[in-house]
Amino acid sequence: MTLIQTTNLGHKYRERYVLKNVNLNINQGEVFALIGPTGSGKTTLLKLLDLLEIPASGRIYFDGVDVTHSGGPRLEARRRMSFVLQKPIVFNMSVYDNVACGLRWRHEPKDIVRQRIESALELVAIAEYKNRNARSLSGGETQRVAIARALATKPEVLFLDEPTANLDPVATSKIEEVLAHIIKEQKTTVVMATHDMSQGQRLARRIGVMMNGEILQVGSPSNIFSSPKSREVAEFVGVENILGGVIIAKDNNLVTIEVNGSTIQAISDFIVGDMVQALIRPEDITFALSKDISSARNTFEGKISRITPVGPLVRIEVDCGFPLLGVVTKRSAEELGFSVGKKVCASFKATAIHVIKRWN
Amino acid sequence: MTELWQGLVRAIELLISLDPEVFEIAGRSLLISVTSCSISALFSLPLGGLIHFYHFPGKRFLISTIQTLFSIPTVAVGLFVFVLFSQAGPLGGLNLMFTPVAMVIGQVILVTPIILGLIISALSGVDKAVPETAISLGATGFQVAILTLREARYAVLTALVMGFGRAISEIGIALMVGGNIKGFTRTLTTAISLETQKGDIELSIALGIILISIALVINLALSRIQQR
Amino acid sequence: MKSRLTVYTFSILATLSLLSAALGCSSAEGAELQPPKERLKVATTTSLYESGLWGYLEPIFEEKYGVEVDILCAGTGIALEYGRRGDVDIITVHSKAGEEKFISEGYGVERVAFAYNYFLIVGPEDDPAGLKEMSAEDAFKKLAESKSGAFVSRGDDSGTYVREKAIWRSAGYDYEEITKAGNWYIEAGRGMGPTLLMASELKAYTLTDVGTYLTYKVKTELVPIVDKGSILLNVYSAIAVNPERNPKTNYEMANNLVNFLTSPEIQELIGNYGKKEYGISLFNPCAGAEPEE
Fold first, then answer.
1. One domain for residues A97 and A64
2. B32 touching chain C per CB within 8 A
3. Is residue C9 part of a domain?
């Protein structure tokens, strides 16, 4: 069931559009992640959805009611939602009083206020700090107070703007733990913005990719991950091999694409003569020293042009008429004796390639 | 130096002996100044909130006018209130000339720009995310205003103390519309002025020390509160 | 705990200020809330106040008539202005010309002299300009010609200042020229007491009423230089503000005060005031009749 719906939503700051044509449905009980680079309009969209700002164009429906413009049911609708800002601030009062704010503003009875605060503080594991001034807490603790404050009112929708952007890895995993717990236990609808693709994947069931104020693609994490609709989405979700070419042969759905004089075989519905881009994730490329053993349809010989260690992995760039990027573990790179200039064979399966229409 | 020393000794004597006249004057000074500041605060708080939270044409001009009036001369206010409340003036019929009420009215006019102006800047010193967070937590406009005031409470307190400091140390209004009447409108500042004119430097210094002590105690209390 | 403490402090402060606001209002309106006491506003020249005479007479009058007397101490000019505006009920001043103008304009009812004394020219003991035993006019003339001594003038709106100007005129000078005559002529712009202190500091001459001079004698190093001559006669009078001009004035009580000041027993008190302390009397009683110059 749709809880929030927007039609052609647009917003502008100082005559510049920061949000265009957003048509979005958020279903009751789902966890939806907006991902996209910084400045793509995620925060603006969240603020519009939480009814903190009035959109320049389009409409917003909450639970079937038009809440686009001021007055009327906006306050009631907003009181069924909560928002944790990107850099949450706490009020200059005790942790307990901070969490109490939303409840007191709703004039909830005292015993309910107390009980809700206790359980919210318990949930984010910060109960022992309840009498401390909230301003004296660390970044991660502040974030937890803000989440407890947002949850205390038992919102039907929880908006989270970059819930871990300013935190260290330890605090980040703690917050994610809390969020995963809330999502599982409370069945709250959650809409979160994050620039961290993997965080979206970990927490959300549906993802919307935003760029330049537009939602480019909505789908399940695996769908977005494996089948990005456009080059921009592909780049953002971590597809690093994007090869432009043209389809020169087709056999059922097995196509042959010509790329810089080489040919690649892939699975696709495009027809002969279509200009396409072949997307290959680095982790789908395997390396060997000789050609023979690979069962993959696509195998290319080339010289290693660059080796970049990334944590426990090594990124290998190979020039085989076109550039290819892959990753191997540090250990296998050492075993195979990889070095710049060395000849290797790179191979990948036809099913590992995602073919999209070429725009340029 | 001996004059200063004797003044100090005399001040301590007067304080220890609980000299009724000195205490009466100090008490009256306090009462009049606290009354003026409280009255000013009563309408400056909501007014400052209105000016801060609402956008209207001329807002900047209004704020800079208020700030200009921070340093309005006390004698100008004194003259204004004198002309207003003198029997020959438009409000002469109220019979307020040379009464503490007239002094309070004058001091309210004197301290309101300071209190109002500092309250506005106290409110604008509150993080912009405070009202936004409050709204997202379901606060009404009024609840947002109350929270913002609460977040600015130390700066608001400073505003009141600044106003009080100006009120208790002014002499222009007290002299011009109060008249320095013994036992009725004589305050610390007018008493100091009179005693100096009478050549009683020691008593003047004693009264001056009391005046400075009052200011000191209040500012110390303020900084103690602010440190929390 | 800290934050709760601040909240408490804050609310206590707020309550306190509200409380004192309420207190302040009620005490300011006290005149109406308590059994209302009649008030009489008197504007007096500084010399009658600073010499302590008013402080001496005020409680006697208050007790006799059950009235609260508010005394505003100001120069004669300001006192006359308060009277003109109707802000006071009665004035006690010492500037005959100003007083007569005040009455002829209809602001005052009648000028009743109740005490007199003499102005003095006082100066440093060594008398640098050699003015001793001269008449006031000659002394001023010598001061202006020789420039061998400084003179501190009140330079305000007081009766003493009016008298000083009269002496300059009588000595044959245009007062405007004197004000531009040079560094030896200093305008203080202050009350009699501060002017005396200033003259003492500067080792200068000044014109003073005898009452204030005697009160300040111990604080200054000034001695009387010229103390004779009809031009130095200083008459204090009381003028009730005209109720026809200012209907709200407390004319009845003002008349009580005039009668009080001219009554035999008070006249005697005025005549004896300061005798014990200074050896001589500060004021001579003259019950309604102005002494001839």
1. yes
2. yes
3. no
Residue spans of alpha helices (H) in A124-274: 139-152, 169-186, 197-203, 221-226, 231-236
3-state class of A348 per DSSP? strand
User: pTM to 2 decimals?
Assistant: 0.76
The phi and psi torsions of A310 (rounded to 5 degrees) equal -130, 100
Task: From chain C, pick out residues whose CB is under 8 angstroms from the CB of B185.
Answer: 70
Quick one: C71 and C153 in the same domain? no
- Calpha distance B214→B208 (Å, rounded): 10
Question: Do residues A263 and A322 both lie within one domain?
Answer: yes
In angstroms, the CA C65 to CA A182 distance is 84
Same-domain status, A226 and A301:
no
What pLDDT tens digit does each residue of chain A (360 aa) get? 889 999 999 998 888 889 999 999 999 989 999 998 888 999 999 999 999 999 999 999 999 899 998 777 888 999 999 999 988 999 999 999 999 999 999 999 999 999 999 999 988 888 899 899 999 998 888 988 999 999 899 999 999 999 888 778 888 888 888 888 888 888 889 999 988 888 888 889 999 999 999 999 999 988 888 788 888 888 888 788 888 889 998 888 889 998 888 888 898 888 888 888 888 888 888 888 877 666 678 888 889 999 988 888 899 999 888 888 999 898 888 888 888 888 888 888 888 888 888 765
Structural domain of residue C277, as residue ranges? 37-117+234-288
Instruction: List, as ranges, residues 107-146 from B with C-beta within 8 Å of C.
Output: none
Dist. CA A118–CA A19, nearest whole Å: 39
**Spatial distance between the Cα atoms of B171 and A214, rounded to a whole number of angstroms:** 66
Distance from A44 to chain B by nearest Cα, in Å?
13
Give the CATH fold of the B2-227 domain: MetI-like fold (1.10.3720)
One domain for residues C213 and C159? yes
Interface check for A100 against chain C (CB to CB < 8 A): the answer is no
Instruction: Write the residue in B32, B88, B99 that is nearest to C86 by C-beta.
Output: B88
Q: Given A218, A235, A252, which residue is the final one in a domain?
A: A235
How many contacts, defined by CB atoms under 8 Å, are there between A and C? 10
Q: Which residue has the tokens 């008459």?
A: C235
Nearest-CA distance A83 → chain B (Å): 6
**A133 to C7: CB separation less than 8 angstroms, yes or no:** no
Domain endpoint, select from A217, A235, A253: A235
- Tell me whether residues A97 and C3 touch, CB distance under 8 A: yes
Asked whether the beta carbons of C223 and C140 are under 8 A apart, the reply is: no
- Residues of C whose CB is below 8 A from A92: 3
Same domain for A84 and A58, yes or no, is yes
Give B129's contacts in chain A (Cβ within 8 Å). 85, 87-89
Are A105 and B130 in contact (CB < 8 Å)?
Answer: no
Domain containing residue A146: 2-235
CATH number, domain with residue A57: 3.40.50.300
